[in-house]
Design a protein that fits this description.
The complex is a heterodimer of chains A (262) and B (266). In chain A, 36% of the residues lie in helices and 22% in strands. Chain A has 262 residues and is of the alpha/beta class. Chain A has one domain: Rossmann fold. Chain A is globular and about 50 Å long. Chain B is an all-alpha fold and 266 residues long. Chain B has one domain: MetI-like fold (Orthogonal Bundle), CATH 1.10.3720. In chain B, 78% of the residues lie in helices and 0% in strands. The longest helix of chain B is centred in the N-terminal third of the chain and has 33 residues. Chain B is flat and about 70 Å long. Classes of the chains: A alpha/beta (262), B mainly alpha (266).
Chain lengths: 262, 266
């Protein structure tokens, strides 16, 4: 279970990107986070695995407080947090298998990583997961030879190789065509159930959010302003999350600064 | 019609711009004139050049191949100097590249140390390095190898360092997120991205070093240059011609090999 309380993040001395944010995600649930660009969705996900340093507040994953961790403790905590990226973030010149094994880097000794002598059970697990998502026959191909949908599957398997306790997906379908996009969403939904994982998905496509997730969270200006089932997300709620963003931002005169990562 | 043709007159430069352009051109002309005026040119010798060239050529033909055996061995030595020096320079330049790239250097002090090494290596010509090392190691190939190595470290370190600075940050972020240590992130996210540039730059430097090692002999640091210098000193122009032909052949072969390697590896 993930528990975020009073989370604040500001870049430099600017306006906070996340303001006093509270969110609880129980095990085995898929949560979509929707909101306009710059609402703080990416920053929120990156605060959880500390790619972005929270300014204040607390983030607890299965009883472990993540915000205070340093060096080795932080790396150990990150091993259990899988992340999936909008741009896949694979190492293009490495093979699919090497990319997948990147998920184990936190567990294996340096010499094994350097010589590509991965433990047998890791290789077995990799093939098992690659078969599960349908990319096992690409194991020896270079990552940049695959199509977008296939590359994202590699990203998903890399995250699952970590034996994660939670999956964070930052716009996992935004660079994909509609068909691959639906396939990836379906995959995430099924994997969450199979591995009994909480999954947080930043997503722009509200229809996909409604279709593939049981819970939707709406963000605006760094705050959660909606939290409910897809059925609850009616016209009015959508309006609050999205509409008039432009005019209000201009009217406020102190627009939350765009996060570095979007 | 509210505007007359005169109102719409257009010219590429405003009067002010035209004056600036004229002034800069005048300044360049002045600088050239001043340079030519200050260096001491003996004009009769310049006008005499075509006759001298014809004379030299006539002394060079036909090339004298009698010492071809020694020349071939000197060529092999030249290639070996270039190759060994390149390999050593590659090994030394990697840590230098690492600390002089802004995104991998541990701290400000190491960044400046790296840049200092690069600049000092690059600002001194190979022949000057060679003079220095002939004084230290005595005449011979060791001085030549070390000289070429010292000059190459700056070149390789700078270009590989730039390749490190230009990598895509995204895989680095992804691997940091998996809990991989810094050393493993370098191994998996940075090294693979730098490998193509690394090979291209190394092959290019080998090619350059091959040409540089042909002149090392002029200061006594081994290679084909030693024979060339000896032949010039004894006015043995027909052997000089043979050596020059040999150098051209060597350089063309080096060029071909490096082009083939580049295609093969990258």
């Amino acid at each position: 279970m993930l528990k975020i309380s009073n989370l604040v993040k500001r870049y430099g001395n600017g306006e906070p990107v996340l303001r006093d944010l509270n969110l609880e995600v129980p095990d085995e649930s898929v949560v979509s986070i929707i909101g306009a660009s710059g609402a703080g969705k990416s920053t929120l996900l990156r605060c959880i695995n500390r790619l972005v340093e929270p300014t204040s507040g607390s983030i607890e994953l299965n009883g472990v407080e993540l915000t205070g961790l340093r060096h080795n403790d932080l790396r150990h905590a990150r091993r259990h947090i899988g992340m999936i990226f909008q741009g896949f973030n694979l190492v293009d010149r490495l093979t699919v298998m090497e990319n997948v094994q990147c998920g184990r880097l936190g567990y294996i000794p340096y010499w094994r990583a350097a010589l590509r002598r991965y433990p047998a059970e890791d290789i077995d697990r990799a093939f098992h997961l690659m078969e599960r998502v349908g990319i096992a026959h690409y194991a020896d191909k270079r990552a940049d030879e695959l199509s977008g949908g296939e590359r994202q599957r590699v990203g998903v398997v890399r995250a699952l190789m970590q034996e994660p306790e939670i999956l964070l997906a930052d716009e996992p379908t935004a660079s994909l065509d509609p068909v691959s996009s639906r396939q990836i969403m379906e995959l995430l939904q099924n994997l969450a159930a199979e591995f009994k994982l909480p999954v947080l998905i930043n997503i722009h496509n509200v229809n996909e959010a409604k279709e593939f997730t049981q819970r939707i969270v709406g963000m605006r200006f760094g705050r959660l302003i909606f939290d409910g089932t897809p059925a609850d997300l009616d016209e009015q709620a959508m309006g609050e999350v999205y509409s008039g963003t432009q005019s209000e931002e201009q009217g406020e005169g102190k627009t939350p600064s765009q996060p570095v990562v979007s | 019609m509210t505007q007359s043709v005169a109102d719409r007159a257009w010219s590429r430069y405003s009067p002010r711009q035209r004056w600036i352009r004229f002034a800069s051109m005048a300044a360049v002309a002045l600088a050239v004139f001043w340079s030519v005026a200050t260096i001491d040119i003996i004009w009769p010798w310049v006008w005499d050049a075509p006759v001298q060239i014809a004379d030299l050529l006539s002394r060079m033909v036909p090339p004298d191949f009698s010492s071809i055996h020694a020349i071939v061995w000197a060529l092999i030595e030249t290639v070996n100097i270039a190759t060994i020096a390149t390999v050593l320079a590659v090994v030394v330049s990697l840590p230098v590249a690492y600390i002089s790239a802004q995104n991998t250097t541990p701290n400000k002090a190491t960044l400046w140390l790296g840049r200092f090494i690069l600049v000092s290596s690059r600002s001194v010509n190979t022949l000057i390095w060679a003079l220095l090392f002939v004084a230290i190691f005595g005449p011979g190939v060791v001085a030549g190898i070390v000289a070429i190595m010292f000059r190459s470290v700056g070149f390789l370190g700078k270009l590989i360092g730039e390749a490190i600075e230009e990598i895509d940050r995204k895989p680095v972020e992804a691997l940091e997120a998996t809990g991989a240590s810094h050393a493993k992130v370098i191994l998996y996210a940075i090294v693979p991205q730098v490998v193509p540039a690394f090979f291209a730059v190394s092959v290019l430097r080998w090619d350059i070093n091959l040409r540089e090692s042909t002149v090392l002999g002029l200061v006594g640091a081994g290679g084909i240059g030693v024979i060339l210098q000896g032949a010039i000193d004894t006015l043995d122009w027909r052997t000089v011609a043979t050596v020059l032909i040999a150098i051209v052949v060597l350089v063309i072969m080096g060029e071909a090999i490096s082009a083939w390697l580049r295609k093969k590896v990258i």
